[in-house]
């Protein structure tokens, strides 16, 4: 007999599931007791019907024989298959899955870490710290907070984040948060507790590599790495070695290749083969670097400037057509675009291409200095070739329409507003275009990232709690004393939970105030931290030493009036712990844990398809279901209509118009809104934003107009990826 207790659903209720099917118990085949198929509180007809439906479906999944170890996974998966019918099934699925996890693991965090150490999963120093503080750390663990995870999030955790010894699970979900908090703060138990409480309450979440690697011998607390490629044929394999070391830990890489000489050039007496063979080498390397099972694979974006002599070859390597030996399938591409190129495209002028071996000064200049040097090189006849600027632009846009990339970042806006101007010219971004830092061949730029989960700050009054948001900005930034990236996730869900259309005027203002609150509090706390860590080493000659804040670089910065910026400028002049603080990243991985929309995007679809043990199921935002249930509109028939309309509710007239306005998808919102909202919050972002553009049927004209709009509004990232309806998929296997 298998007993399932509804402990996380209705206190005291339980169901006993049985039939004439057989189970294997300790190697002995036994029948279910068919006289006790269901035993549940009969005074709850609704719950009885739910249990009856679940039992019937559950038993239909059995073969002739099933192991008892498979019972609960099948029951949880069966319950999950009904999630879009009634939210209670989600609670059942989560409850059963948690029972499975708890049965397999110890209640003690310190004991779990000892087992992890014996399995060579955590370091000796980490274990020693945990053992020293075991009593308090074990006491701080609160398994009740696991109710914040959905069934699907629990499956993702087991697959990619929780420590395992082979197939044996060692961690409970709360242990991951505690392991990360201990890795960040060490023996500072007060801050360990603060971080644990905020992460376990889903107020902020560090990047995936931080969650996966905390406590290990190579903890890898940075998610993003930026470096230029070696240019000498004899040292190019040094770059491969660096790439291998970073990707083994799941890090994402931004690699600048604009230094590489063009094909046919002669450098130091050697005929150079150009960028294509090197890109193919880097592309192939990602296939041979082994990854731990379930962990995020390493990935790389290559950056090049549009004046490079082989820019056309670079762009065409991401086209979907062409010879395989001229295409790169594993690597992402990005253009490090200067203002002069954009101007010449706008004016329909000619554009000169150069080999870096004769035009290296173009790499180390920006703004007016770049323009002066570019014109000097043109006048001196050193151009490799000259083409119409719009011809190159057309190739870029066509490639984006075909493959989603290359990304476009604006070199001048990035360098003009960077607090790292005193270090040198920034020449590349990171994998996902939100991290933009100075790097050279001697020093790889690194950045840990964390996202603030905005729906956690929506109050019952449907407002943002800016005070708690400010406190969380402080804690999420207390991870490192160099450059960091604090971002957001769930903006689309937060607006929906507040009853606001994403494209409304009120949402536009809240968008700015959120970013302003995060930035102000992060800077203020970083100034406070100099009493602990001191100022970062190169502060003295940085713009911050003169009191420059991000809004000071923008004439159009909007403020809420909530903060004393003059006082902060005075405080800043005395020192700051972090050179850079905010960066709005994509949150595709961690959004699977929270269940909210990625980053600062609208909700992409009202349906997400999941593949689970018992088949394919549909997931719909719980706040939409609750809203429609309150209006007595929700039904399986309505759900089926949403599915038939590919996740849109706009043509369902029974749903009130104001609700349809709140729940527009990213495909139904004017893409200019996305660009303009990014521009509005830009004055409060030290680094950049991974801004996707959504176009169901993109054209060269429309996409060009949107990218130019971002450039004219001083965005640093013109586009991360183009998302088209044909390229979009919401299916995930768990």
Automatic annotation (TrEMBL):
<dbReference type="GO" id="GO:0004748">
    <property type="term" value="F:ribonucleoside-diphosphate reductase activity, thioredoxin disulfide as acceptor"/>
</dbReference>
<feature type="domain" description="Ribonucleotide reductase large subunit N-terminal">
    <location>
        <begin position="148"/>
        <end position="218"/>
    </location>
</feature>
<dbReference type="InterPro" id="IPR000788">
    <property type="entry name" value="RNR_lg_C"/>
</dbReference>
<dbReference type="InterPro" id="IPR008926">
    <property type="entry name" value="RNR_R1-su_N"/>
</dbReference>
<dbReference type="Pfam" id="PF00317">
    <property type="entry name" value="Ribonuc_red_lgN"/>
</dbReference>
<keyword id="KW-0560">Oxidoreductase</keyword>
<feature type="domain" description="Ribonucleotide reductase large subunit C-terminal">
    <location>
        <begin position="222"/>
        <end position="472"/>
    </location>
</feature>
<dbReference type="GO" id="GO:0005971">
    <property type="term" value="C:ribonucleoside-diphosphate reductase complex"/>
</dbReference>
<keyword id="KW-0215">Deoxyribonucleotide synthesis</keyword>
<dbReference type="InterPro" id="IPR013509">
    <property type="entry name" value="RNR_lsu_N"/>
</dbReference>
<protein>
    <recommendedName>
        <fullName>Ribonucleoside-diphosphate reductase</fullName>
        <ecNumber>1.17.4.1</ecNumber>
    </recommendedName>
</protein>
<comment type="function">
    <text>Provides the precursors necessary for DNA synthesis. Catalyzes the biosynthesis of deoxyribonucleotides from the corresponding ribonucleotides.</text>
</comment>
<dbReference type="InterPro" id="IPR039718">
    <property type="entry name" value="Rrm1"/>
</dbReference>
<feature type="domain" description="Ribonucleotide reductase large subunit C-terminal">
    <location>
        <begin position="474"/>
        <end position="720"/>
    </location>
</feature>
<comment type="similarity">
    <text>Belongs to the ribonucleoside diphosphate reductase large chain family.</text>
</comment>
<dbReference type="Pfam" id="PF02867">
    <property type="entry name" value="Ribonuc_red_lgC"/>
</dbReference>
<dbReference type="GO" id="GO:0009263">
    <property type="term" value="P:deoxyribonucleotide biosynthetic process"/>
</dbReference>
<dbReference type="GO" id="GO:0005524">
    <property type="term" value="F:ATP binding"/>
</dbReference>
